[in-house]
Protein: Carbohydrate ABC transporter permease
Organism: Streptomyces lateritius
Amino acid sequence: MTLTASGPTTAPVPPPSARSTAGARRRRWAALVPYVYVAPFFTLFAAFGLFPLLYTAFVSLYRVELQTPGDMEWRGFGNYAALLTDEFFWTALRNTFTIGVLSTVPQLAMALGLAHLLNYKLRGRTFFRTAMLLPYATSVAAATLVFAQLFGRDFGLVNYALSLIGAGPVDWQNGTLASQIAVSSIVVWRWTGYNALIYLAGMQSIPSELYEAAEMDGASRWRQFFHVTLPGLRPTIVFTAVVSTIGATQLFGEPLLFEGSASGGISHQYQTLGLYLYEQGWGFFHLGRAAAIAWLMFLLILLLVGINALIVRRRSRREEGRA
């Protein structure tokens, strides 16, 4: 600021230099770089994840046939009401729950036991850990076709083994419980090793000092397992339970290829919700009803995951209160 005869005046501000302008431009680009890196993911997610989800919800409110997808008749929640009054929907829902329990509970229990064995210093540990992933890496089609032969009624190896102990042959494809056990065994075989490696990674993250302290207190291997290993694996067990529940709700390939029919047997004895969706959409050409089934499955998964999270939260609060 300078004084002149006419009064105080402000000195002119010099124009910004080219170097400062370039620096500001680089800072703006540096702030945008993280968004550029994540943009492909969000673009693909919007195109192949979010849009199909929203469009499926839109189609579920219309009567749409596969032969004429352009002719859409407004039904509102008519597709959902029709499903809730369809006995085959409730049969598929019950079968999904039964097969889910028969496959998830033994699968996670066996995976926990195998991980506990592999956690010790055994010879050939690397080989056994690699072999655990072989069923998971096997094609679901190949595995299901092999198991369909094993559970054959006349020449199946399972019935042959039962005959050695005096048991009669079992019709694994037509019996309700027998067919569900056969389908569940495929799921157990494919996913037990995968979950065992997840549990093994969780066990190796438990501090060794806890085991040393338990051993000094005279705790046996079983007591160490129940009082050190299981509490340390609780977040991992919750994760595998949630993922297995989602997989059981969406079970499709194993029951479809077990007999090669979308109806899940003569009396729909092992038809899951995934098979029921496929039958309605691509067997009976009811795309609107198939979309409604997809959304009911989505809501069912949210409900099951929410119940699981609520149980875990209440249990954590109880333990914090005891501490």
